[in-house]
Specification:
heterodimer, A: mainly beta, Immunoglobulin-like, 6-stranded mixed β-sheet, 12 strands, B: mainly beta, 7-stranded mixed β-sheet, 4-stranded antiparallel β-sheet
Chain lengths: 114, 117
């Protein structure tokens, strides 16, 4: 079985500042994908960034980047220059080798303050 | 940008009634999924569907649930004899392919909120 844990239920950050959301996971697979999804108040799940486990280079997407530590099974999300529109629930997720099933963490509610 | 469309956005039903949630996946996607999120809880996998059959399902997806692709575009989740604990947001998703060698990116719909009274 695979598990995903997000230890920070809520976080806040000032606009334009940087914030890091934590995620740890457990899986017996050697190849897998990791994702961060954003869920704004509209409730739609929006892909923020993804990381292939076999790639050592950390993924980046504009203001979003990850710190992937495979040995430690850690996958944190860094949001730089936070914007008010970043206010949302953020879910870390793991996809197994077969790719059929995403396992989600419990989520971190991020509030960006003006 | 292509999107996954779900209807209805919100449905209220009486306990014991049957509910059908509909999804139109992205047209060139081959893999379809249903996920569920009970208010305040984790998003949970229900089922994946490929080539007109279920490829994987979770323990949640018992005989009360069924999925089908009745035509070339719709992908439906049927919940028979709804229970209070079925109240949740149901997300449909689709992907081009699956597996580590593929794109492996799910596009989610906006969700259908089901309230069972």
């Amino acid at each position: 079985a695979q598990t995903v844990t997000q230890s920070q239920p809520e976080m806040s950050v000032q606009e334009a500042e940087t914030v890091t959301l934590s995620c740890t996971y457990d899986t017996s697979e050697n190849n897998y994908y990791l994702f961060w999804y954003k869920q704004p108040p509209s409730r739609q799940m929006i892909l923020v960034i993804r990381q292939e486990a076999y790639k050592q280079q950390n993924a980046t997407e504009n203001r979003f980047s990850v710190n992937f530590q495979k040995a430690a099974k850690s996958f944190s999300l860094k949001i730089s220059d936070s914007q008010l529109g970043d206010t949302a629930m953020y879910f870390c997720a793991l996809c197994n080798n077969a790719g059929n099933m995403l396992t989600f963490g419990g989520g971190t509610r991020l509030m960006v303050k003006p | 940008e292509p999107e996954v469309t779900q209807t209805p956005s919100h449905q209220v039903t009486q306990m014991g009634q049957e509910v059908i949630l509909r999804c139109v996946p992205i047209s060139n996607h081959l893999y379809f999924y249903w996920y569920r999120q009970i208010l305040g809880q984790k998003v949970e996998f229900l089922v994946s569907f490929y080539n007109n059959e279920i490829s994987e399902k979770s323990e949640i997806f018992d005989d009360q649930f069924s999925v089908e692709r009745p035509d070339g575009s719709n992908f439906t989740l049927k919940i028979r004899s709804t229970k209070l604990e079925d109240s949740a947001m149901y997300f449909c998703a689709s992907s081009v392919r699956t597996g580590v060698s593929g794109a492996n990116v799910l596009t989610f719909g906006a969700g259908s909120r089901l309230t069972v009274l």
